[in-house]
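Hi R.,

Here's the chain you asked about this morning:
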Amino acid sequence: VRMGTGYVPRLFLWIMFALGVAVFVLGLRGSGETGADDPPLNWRPLLFIPASQVVFALAIDELGIIIAGALMILVGGLASRESRWLEVVISAAVLVFFVWLIFVYALGLVIPVWPGG
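And the predicted structure, written out as tokens:
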């Protein structure tokens, strides 16, 4: 009845959790079409997506949000065999710009932008 200070973040948490479970279940189901050269388990996303988050967490304090964000997207780009490096690099540049624009410029959060900053 009364919304407290943590109501909206908790609501977003449960929405994101439900979406994550839905994507996970759909990913396990797959398309049903397997080729002769397809592995039974696609290990690349299971390895590189968590690795990209670890790289970001370890790099943000020393390298700043620009380089750490770009590294995260580049490592995450290794999760798919269909990734084209030019598209990954362009995506990294655009996404890192918007991260800087929203979190550093618009919200004024004190986040290191560059190394030593």
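The two ends are 44 Å apart (CA to CA).

Let me know if you need anything else.
M.
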